[in-house]
Every structure is written in C-alpha cells, then in structure tokens.
Amino acid sequence: MTVTDPGWVDTDSFRPNRGQFPIRVEQHLNRFVSFHLPGVTTVTSATRYYALHGLTAYVVAEEALDEPAAVNILRRSEALLAYVTHVHEQELGSEHPWSPAPHGIDKIRTHAVTAEGVDLSKAAEHYAEAKWAFLNPYRGSEMFLDILQRSGGFKPGERFDPAAARSVLVPLLETARSQDAVSREQAAALSAACLCTTSNQMDGAWLAELLSGDKTASTDPKNVSAGRLLWEFGHLTAVATQVGDVTDASALSRLIMFDPELAQHPALLGQVAPERWRGALFRKESVWALRLIWHKISNLVEGASYVADLMAAFADLLPDSDTVGSFRGKLPHHLRKDGGPREAERELEDRTDVERWLGTLMLGAARLPNLSEQELQGFRAAREHEAGQWDELSPGWFQELLELNADMSLRDFGVLLARQMINRSQRVALGKSRFHAKTQVFSYPARLHVRDGVAVRLFGETAPEPATRIPQYLSIARQAGMFTVNNDGKFAVGKNGERLA
Length: 501
Description:
Largest sheet: 3 strands, mixed
Strand content: 5-15%
Strand order of the largest sheet: 1-8-7
Low-confidence stretches: 1-14
Number of helices: 21
Radius of gyration: 26 Å
Distance between the termini: 57 Å
Number of domains: 3
Number of strands: 12
Helix content: 40-55%
Shape: globular
C-alpha cells in the first residue's frame, strides 16, 4: 500500500492522528491484567459509582423507564454526586477524609455552579460528553461483578444489593430527579453520599464483598477463574502489608517482584497469583523500557530528519567503548545468591537514561530462562514463540538478538535497535490505518511518519507507565474499606477486608 505525494500533502484527504501503542509491545501485559485483576480498570476511580449505577438501573427497571429517561436520571445523579462531594470537601477543608476527585466536577464548576448552589440541569448537560456519561468506563467492571446484567440492556445484575445502595443514595437520587436547582445547604445535607464516606456505609461493605473475589473457586492452575484470581490478588496485597511497607502501587509491586519473605510466605502456598504477578511485573519493566526508548528515538526528530541520521543520533547516546557483550557483563546479576530475583533494575540509577533502559531490556531477557512455569504465564504469552520464532521485541527475541550480536559495538547495536523500532512503528501504523470511503479520508495513526528515508514528526511521543491496574485496585479497595491507610501512609487491612484473610 502506497500513500502518494498528493495524499501526503493534502490535509483534506489525509488526516494523521496520534494513535496509541505505536510499537505494540503491550498486548500480553494488557491481556494478563484484564484477566488477573478484573472488577477495576484504569478509569474506574471512585467506588461509589458502582452502587449509583446499580441503583439507577434498578429504578429504571422497576419503573419501566425508556432510554431517554434512564440517561436523564443517570446524568443528573452523577452530576449531583460530584457536586455534593465538592461541597463536602470545601466545608471540611483539610479535615475532609481522603477521596478521589468526582467525575466531571471541573466542568460543573465552570458551567453550572452559581452563588446559591448548582443548576443541576446545566450540570447534567455539561459535565460529560458521552451520552451515558461515566457509565461506560465502569460498565465492564460492573458486569463482571454482576452489579449490572451482562446482556439485555441497562438492568441490575444478580448481585446488586438494593438495600445497601438505597441506604445512602436514595436521598441523592430523589433530589436529582425532582429538582433543577440544588442549593449549597441542600447539597451539604446530602453529605452522607460524599465519596469520602463509602468505606463507612452499607454500600461500601457490600462492594467490598464483591471486590474480594471468590476464595472458594477452584485452585487448579489450569482452570483458575477470574473470581479466584481477584481474591488471590487481594490476599497477596493483604499479606504484603504485613511483610513490608505498602505505600502505593510501586511499593507493592516491588515487594511482589523481589521480597523473599513474601515469595515464601506460608499463607500464599498453592496460589498462582503471586508468581504470575511477579512475572507480569518483570514484563512491565521491559515494556516500559521499550516505550521510553521509542519515546527518545521519536523525539530526537525536530520537524524532519533522515532516518539514517536519526538512528545515528540515538546510537551516539550509548557508550562508544563497549560491545554488546561487555555492556551486558557490567550489569548487576539478576539473581541473588539464594536463586531469588535480585533488584538489578533498581541498581542502574547511576547510568544515563538510554543506558538504563537498554540495561533493563537486557536484564528482562536474562530473567527468561530462570522463571517458573507460573511466572512465565505472567512474563510472556505462549504465542510469542511459535515455529521456533520469537515475536519481535519480545524478551525471547531480544535475548537471541543479544547473543547473535555479542561482539557488535554497542553503538552499532543502537543503530540496529533503532532501525527495528522505526520500521515496526510504521508497520503497526499501517496495520491500523483506515480509508473511510464516505468521507474520502485516509487515517494513519502515527506520530512519526517515514517516507523515502525521511522521518517526519507530526506529534510529540509519550511514554506512559504501562497499566497494571494496581493503583486503581488499591484506590477502589481502600474506598470500599478493604484497606486503610495509617498516618504514616502505609496500607493495612481495613474493617471490610476480612474476606482477604
């Protein structure tokens, strides 16, 4: 497929866009996370929305309301929940308990807040662009937890608890349905529904039960259910809070990867989640290193650059006195003396950025032969090695490339790696490209475009941390009272976390 010169310059027929996953190295990690940590996603930030969506669906089904009425109730209720939380936070100031920011509050403050309170009709109109507002980001998780039905429209699921949801949200829902304007005083009177109260209310206890997964499900590693995996991750987190200091997702991940006491803890025997997550978090290190290298290569282009010059510019960032083998030989060993994983990636802080990222890739490749069967399930997909061939940029592929080019100068290896990634980025973008016959627009999702040996940067590249959902899990579980955070910022099992024992 060829993009001709007129198509390249004609902005009416060719519309580049930024795209996502430009070198497509996240697929295995994303699949792993979606199965092993269900019930939360990277966009589910506030636990009470689970209950609000379930209650809204319950009312819609109970009153046999049509879709426009359902959307209206949902939008007005979500908007009022955001305003109530906003007012409660303002009133308590620094004494306000921790809670995430409510969805859409910035737009509500801009378009709907008045001197007296909030214009709820305007708030419901402006706070979210999507028709179903913030339902869609939560819907997959709510269907997995059976708060909403998995098919048949917007209806409550089998595990929705009307009593728990109604206990705190009925006054808010009734106000949202009956009033177009809500004063600050009325919002303050609804403060029991503020996001900060979830852990102390019935809906929090009910949601904690759902988010604790299914401890009773089969433990057969070949047939483990998503519910069982959700419980095992919660249990792993609970044990980790007893073994070390869990202050955030990064601290928890570090314990899972490297702490020998946690790895050998008797409470975790016979469970697959600890080893699988260890492997997945090792893979995350490699994925992020690749993203950062690609970010660096792409952003070396200022406007336009010959591809050969771009590859050379990247290679110049590497030491000129090392071969691939000698550079690898200077890296810290990836195993401790007892055979457990060493925090080798954390011992690269004195290196330059590019050296650290390349070293992380080399360490990830070195770990491959030493991983257990369950760790391998987290670290790589079986399909990454078929017919004797490794998927490009996978750890196994990288290991073979390092061994094949051990005597190559490190800078020449940098040229080789840059060429591989540039070419891959264009294949990925071409595979995602679409021609829309109706509009006659060709969409090519790439920030860096390569034509006839010239690289043109249309948008700056980014390198976000690969998503594991662990930050969202800790936040959602904390709001549900499964965990609490003490004055030192350390997580501990909360009053609704007894099922994780």
